Amino acid sequence: MDTSYFEDRYQAYVKAKRIPPDVLEQNPDMVKEGHYLTPTEQKALAILRTPEDAQGQPRLSDALAIYLATHQNTANKRATDRAARDWGHLVSLAGDIPVLALVREHARSYVVQRTAKGSKTATVRRAVNTVNAVLNVAIRELDIKGAINPFAAVLIPNEGRDTKDVKTPSARELREVLEAHRDDRSTPALLIRLQLATGARIAEVAGLGVGDVVLSGDTPYIKFQVHPWRPLKNAHSVRNVPLVGDALEAARHALDTAMSLPGGTGTRTSNFPLFPQYARNANGGATASATVNKRLSPWAFNSHGFRHGMKDVLREVGCPEPIQKAIQGHAGDGISAGYGEGYSRRMKAEWLTKAMAHIEGAL
Fold first, then answer.
1. Nearest to 196 by CA among 329, 113, 311, 47
2. Half-sphere exposure (CA, 13 Å, Cβ side) for 191?
3. CA distance 317 to 311
4. What pLDDT was estimated at residue 283?
5. Distance between CA 225 and CA 332 in Å, rounded?
6. Which of 43, 82, 91, 296 has the least C-beta neighbours within 10 A?
7. What is the pLDDT of residue 145?
8. Is the dihedral angle over the CA atoms 323, 329, 334, 338 positive or is it negative?
């Protein structure tokens, strides 16, 4: 492999920076290839360095393609776009090299590059986890013999130290928010009332369909399920949550509003969005969150605080943790947690009623 051209670029860089030979000899790592090679040259060098046994092997672009093709939720455009973006950073760094040519240095450089661009360590960790997942799928599905995932167990310097504490509202603050919006039938207020009383994610509430609101029977409830306009985070997010207290009234108002929109009641099938303005796969949930957050600014917490707040209240009233998880759509513990029909709506309604009574009576 002839790398004389790159050696010339190295010498030119050292000369331009006027680095004394003795200093460079004592600190050989002070000049990185990224300093003196253009992005195109870096990719060319990576190709030249590709081991002979990796020639003709699946490349990084092939790895992403198989990952996206086999993704558990291909309808979740936001998730697949994010995966493509995180993977794109790796390709920009290393070039479209064979998967076999990836080494640990690529993983370390990936972390350095993302951190240097101002990403929080939590964002970098999420990106590393995505790259790790893509590689695991590619190595398995493309049957890449001898490949080792260099992104496994990658360390991120100072991880978590740049995280700001997210405020969890107290029961008293939840009561204040509820009282401030109880008689408000605007869409932001209805989102707040439904999210507060169910502990659901804002995207889940904003993405409900007309048919997801079931007001008949002894235990009215809402169904969280996948829709064309809104995926769910995971399989555990599919669930029924009882409507108790003010949430029942809010659901009725939301349903009446959706049914009265232009077009007539007859066009409102069960697959029609309950909140049409947020029925957008890419950013409907984010838009709803921003809208609700403006309403919550006097209390200094955001929409996700409702999930943490309800979690605390359910604990406070003694709700068993498995039922908490069933209400909020968290994974249960162990394989057996996925067996059977799960907890009844009546049982979940009993604990949510206790939780809302605790909020209403908070001082």
1. 311
2. 31
3. 10
4. 72
5. 18
6. 82
7. 87
8. positive
Residue 273 sits at φ, ψ, to 5 deg, of -60, 140
Tell me how far apart the alpha carbons of residues 171 and 363 are, in angstroms, rounded to a whole number: 8
171-360 is a CATH 1.10.443.10 domain: yes
Q: Residue 334 in contact with residue 355, Cβ under 8 Å?
A: no
Residue 334's pLDDT band, with cuts at 50, 70 and 90, is very low
Strands 221-224 and 239-242: antiparallel
Domain ranges of the chain: 13-45, 55-164, 171-360
Rounded-to-10 torsion of CA 149, 236, 192, 214: 150
As given in the structure block, the two tokens for residue 313 are 């209240």
Do 313 and 307 contact (CB within 8 A), yes or no?
A: no
How many whole angstroms separate alpha carbon 11 and alpha carbon 288? 55
What is the identity of the amino acid at 335?
Answer: I
Burial of 166 (0-12, 13-18, 19+ CB in 10 A): exposed
The domain 55-164: what is its CATH number?
A: 1.10.150.130
Rounded to a whole number of angstroms, the distance between the first and last alpha carbons of the chain is 75
